[in-house]
Specification:
The radius of gyration is 18 Å and the shape is globular. It is 54% helix and 14% strand. Helix 5 runs parallel beside helix 9. It has one domain: P-loop containing nucleotide triphosphate hydrolases (Rossmann fold), CATH 3.40.50.300. It has 10 helices and 8 strands. The strands form 2 sheets. Strands 2-6-1-7-8 form a 5-stranded parallel β-sheet, with helices on both faces. Strand 3 and strand 4 form a beta hairpin. The chain is α/β, with parallel strands linked by helices. The structure holds 2'-deoxycytidine-5'-monophosphate (DC). 2'-deoxycytidine-5'-monophosphate binds next to helix 3, helix 5 and helix 9.
């Protein structure tokens, strides 16, 4: 009995202390590794803001599609940016995403927009345009930011960096369940192929490719539950405090 009380105290102490210190925590990794689920829970445990940077690239992709622009035409995509307004509205349960004042929160979650986001994210002008947006949101700390280049490029000074991975079949199965749960038609094989293609694109692009930061802690979530991953991350954050 007394042991469990001590355990409870030692579990909560790092969380409270991290909350006071307002750290920058980054989570990078491939599609379907569980970054969003884990980042949201981690942010809630720490009392931090959750920043989904993939949503920003998806928002740009949505605009490119709505404007009927070829995503391979980098100059045309870049030309669209000065008249584009992307905004995130923070809600603890579900952050909302707006493009030019229109709520695109659900519309940006389709497989088509996933692929388009990966394509437009390889365009240097798009990455440059989104860089200050992300840094402004995270500058004051107290943030859990997830994406592909948070630890390497956006917040190289982050105090706690993670690279979350899982094997391809596990990632495909998770994404398949997620899509089906959101009412999108999804075939497991096709989802796996899409994830594989997107990862190849994200890992091999010239600008800010998906690579672990040298100082990132790597976690393979293939055989771990969500709680196990969150607790492992909290343990690392506690050591870094
Ligand atoms: O995390 P996500 O699946 O919502 O991201 C969609 C695409 O956006 C992803 O395939 C690559 C791109 N992206 C990126 O290049 N850099 C980030 N920090 C986040 C996402």
């Amino acid at each position: 009995m007394s042991r469990s009380i001590v355990q409870a105290q030692s579990d909560n102490a790092p969380v409270a202390s991290a909350a006071q210190r307002r750290l920058i925590v980054t989570l990078d990794g491939p599609a379907g590794a569980g970054k969003s689920t884990v980042a949201k829970l981690l942010a809630a445990r720490l009392g931090y803001l959750y920043l989904d940077t993939g949503a920003l690239y998806r928002a740009v992709a949505w605009k490119v599609r709505a404007a009927g622009i070829d995503p391979a035409d980098a100059a045309a995509v870049a030309g669209l940016l000065p008249t584009t307004k992307v905004a995130l509205e923070y809600r603890p349960d579900r952050p909302l995403v707006f493009v030019d004042g229109r709520d695109v929160t659900d519309a940006i979650r389709t497989p088509e927009i996933s692929q388009l986001a990966s394509l437009v994210s390889a365009i240097p002008a798009v990455r440059e345009w989104l860089l200050p947006v992300q840094r402004d949101i995270g500058a004051a700390g107290g943030i859990v930011a997830e994406g592909r280049d948070l630890g390497t490029r956006i917040f190289p000074q982050a105090q706690a960096k993670f690279f979350l991975d899982a094997d391809l079949t596990t990632r495909a199965a998770r994404r398949h369940r997620e899509l089906a749960g959101a009412g999108h038609a999804s075939e497991l094989e096709r989802t796996q192929q899409e994830i594989e293609d997107r990862d190849r694109q994200d890992r091999t692009r010239d600008v800010a490719p998906l690579v672990p930061a040298p100082d990132a802690v790597r976690v393979d979530s293939s055989t771990l539950t969500v709680d196990q991953v969150v607790n492992r991350l909290l343990d690392v954050i506690a050591i870094k405090l």
